[in-house]
Amino acid sequence: MTKDIDILNDVTKVLIDSHKGYETCVEVSDDSYALQSNFRERAERRAGLIREFQAEVQKLGGAPSTAGSVAGAAHRAWTSFTTLFADDEKAAIEAIDDGEEFLADKIEDVLKDEALQPRTRELLQKAHADAREGERFADALDNAL
């Protein structure tokens, strides 16, 4: 179970990074209500996943992660920097695509562990599906620009 707690907490950090990234996108896309609405909805969905992961960690007897990763903070800083020199929405979409791909790949790696508890595997699969959907969302937005 300790391994499940560690895995869930590790992925939770990336989910928190992603949530913060979507919130940043809401701010950056202030000219487009439709984009803002989509980013806000994705941020809310990500917040729901974070709560589910944290609840499972507590259920397993661990202390849930409540902060993102150092890498995520660096990625957000890079995104903020690049928006100074590029179209804000385009930079935000690229950041989403990169972040969702990173999240999905990370989850794919941990899903290879056959010793995961069933609920841990279920949560990881749910987060993986959401990350892949986020990639498709970012690709569709990128193609529309």
How are the SSEs placed, and which strands pair?
Layout: H1 2-28, H2 33-59, H3 70-82, H4 88-111, H5 118-144
Helix pairs in contact: 1-2, 1-4, 2-5, 3-4, 4-5
Estimated structural class = mainly alpha
Could you say which overall geometry the principal axes of the C-alpha atoms support? elongated
Q: Write down the overall mean pLDDT.
A: 84
- CA radius of gyration is 15 Å
Our measurement of the CA-to-CA distance between the termini, rounded to an integer number of angstroms, reads: 46 Å
Q: Tell me about the biggest sheet?
A: none
- If you consult CATH, what is the topology? Ferritin
Q: What proportion of the residues is helical, as a percent range?
A: over 70%
Number of beta strands:
0
Indicate the CATH architecture: Up-down Bundle
CATH class: Mainly Alpha
Q: Approximately what portion of the residues adopt beta-strand conformation?
A: under 5%
Number of helices: 5
Low-confidence stretches: 81-86
List key phrases describing it.
145 residues, Ferritin, 0% strand, mainly alpha
Q: Could you please describe the fold and organization of this structure?
A:
The N and C termini lie far apart (46 Å). By secondary structure, this protein is mainly α. It has a single domain (2-144), classed as Ferritin (Up-down Bundle), CATH 1.20.1260.10. The protein is elongated, with a radius of gyration of 15 Å. It has five helices and no strands. The longest helix is centred in the first third of the chain and has 27 residues, at 2-28. Helix content is 81%, strand content 0%. The protein has helices at residues 2-28, 33-59, 70-82, 88-111, 118-144.
